[in-house]
Amino acid sequence: MKTTETDVAIIGGGAAGFFAGINLANFNSAIKVTILEKGKQVLSKVKISGGGRCNVTHAEFDPKTLSTNYPRGQKEMLGPFHQFMTGDMFAWLEERGVELKIEEDGRVFPVSDSSQTIIDCFKSEADRLDVNVITNTGIDEIIRLNESEFSWELLGKGSRVKAKTLIIASGSSPKMWRLVQTLGHKIIEPVPSLFTFNIKDDRIKDLAGISLNAAVEVFTTKDRGVSKQQMKSLQSSGPLLITHWGLSGPCILKLSAWGARTFYGLNHQFQMRINWLPQHNVESVKSLLEDLKDSQPKTFLYPNPTEGIPKRLWQSLLNYLSIDREMNWSNISKSQIQLLSEEICSGVFHVNGKSTFKDEFVTAGGVDLKEIDFKTFQSKRHNDLFFVGEVLNIDAVTGGFNFQAAWTSAYLCAKHLSEAV
Ligand SMILES: Cc1cc2nc3c(=O)[nH]c(=O)nc-3n(C[C@H](O)[C@H](O)[C@H](O)COP(=O)(O)OP(=O)(O)OC[C@H]3O[C@@H](n4cnc5c(N)ncnc54)[C@H](O)[C@@H]3O)c2cc1C
Asked: What domain count does the chain have?
């Protein structure tokens, strides 16, 4: 069996592992860095990220506001973001010739609109800095050594690596989490995050492609084990997209991240209310409709009289309530106005499962954050062990925030090690 000896071994050639490796070699060229990747290729998630465009970070430059995008890790990442955050990543890439652009919603992409630009940049940095990248090497065993020179022995199929310091950057790998448990670390049970909601309902059937601003609020019965406190946090608003399967868009994805654990407990089956006119409530919509009855008695209910509700959705809501769309406003009854107002502001929908959001998905769960020093991303159990990226119980809403956690943790770990090893 071939044995490789190195100062720092990194398990995982993904976003966090690669970024840690190249920064460490850049800070201190005397340190021998080896990245071990089980796949044939490194950076495979970067490749498919952001629909192939790689949403590399987000144009949010205040650390406190930035941290509010992390349902898990909000408190812990605040300090690290003060050291290295979005603007620093922007500068890091631009200094290496990668031009970036900020889209209207704040997401940052390479100008090339191709994730390959990021991969090429990282790979050429690894070459320039002489980082040893070994692919097709999945680590199956981590052994603590009692030798003076090396502290870790890593075993994979046909390979043995001895290292003084170990960085684990294996992303959401159940196998690696089991190995990490044998090192005495607690793993918070992994559950999916960032998903869309499956809903079969006549009101949104055939409306795929409609996008609008809405507010949603989840509710369920107490006997399903969800506390009032949890319920309170399960609200969201913003752009919502009707799909062939149900609902998606930032409003839903944000909710799926904040409620990831609760939704898992509910087997992704629950009810929610939608307000299609989030700037209104039932009472204000009622007076809006009453005004229409007074001001334009001779016009038909259809097309839609209120700004904010697309025509096709308005027609669908009228159908659902069996209100004739060719009726004049003068003929609409009080009870119909009441029904419409309730339907617009608090229609109840049943969510029956989830689908993967193809542009980005992550796992909520991983190494317990209580066991990590957030100045360095060092394990509190072993002083020559570090965790960076998604292997930790840190995840964010969609928009480039997940990569930012990988960049920040990797950079700070590398900075510390460059001075300590
Ligand atoms: C489809 C998709 C699109 C996404 N798009 C975006 C986006 O646009 N913006 C954003 O911010 N986030 C995005 N994300 C999330 C983002 O990709 C992750 O948060 C990020 O990749 C985490 O980086 P990581 O290095 O911790 O893990 P990973 O990138 O998953 O890397 C871990 C690496 O470790 C390797 N590994 C695992 N176990 C072993 C082992 N035993 N031995 C050796 N190697 C091992 C894996 O093969 C992998 O290469 C997306 C995710 C998905 C799935």
From this structure: 2
* Euclidean distance between CA atoms 375 and 396, whole angstroms: 20
Query: Which amino acid, 281?
Result: N
Which residue matches tokens 């970036």?
A: 100
pLDDT tens per residue across span 5-44: 999 999 999 999 999 999 999 999 999 999 999 999 999 9
Q: Which domain holds residue 73?
A: 2-192+362-420
**Which pTM value belongs to this model?**
0.94
Q: Looking at 173-310, list the stretches that DSSP marks H as alpha helix, in order from N- to C-terminal side.
A: 174-182, 228-233, 250-258, 260-265, 282-295
Judgement on whether residues 187 and 207 belong to the same structural domain of the protein: no
Same domain membership, residue 351 and residue 387: no
- Mean pLDDT over each residue of the chain, to the nearest integer: 94
Q: How far is the CA of 306 from the centre of ligand 1 (A)?
A: 44
Q: Which of 19, 170, 361, 398 to mutate to test the pocket of ligand 1 (most atoms within 8 A of CB)?
A: 170
- Cβ proximity of 180 and 367 under 8 Å: yes
What CA–CA distance (Å, rounded) separates 224 from 270?
Answer: 10
* 35 closest CA partner among 123, 97, 121: 123
- Biggest distance spanned by C-alpha atoms of the chain: 91
CB 108 within 8 Å of CB 56? yes
Residues within a 6 A CB radius of ligand 1: 11-17, 36-39, 44-45, 48-50, 54-55, 138-139, 169-171, 173, 175-176, 359-362, 389-391, 400-403, 406
Residue 232: the pLDDT is 67
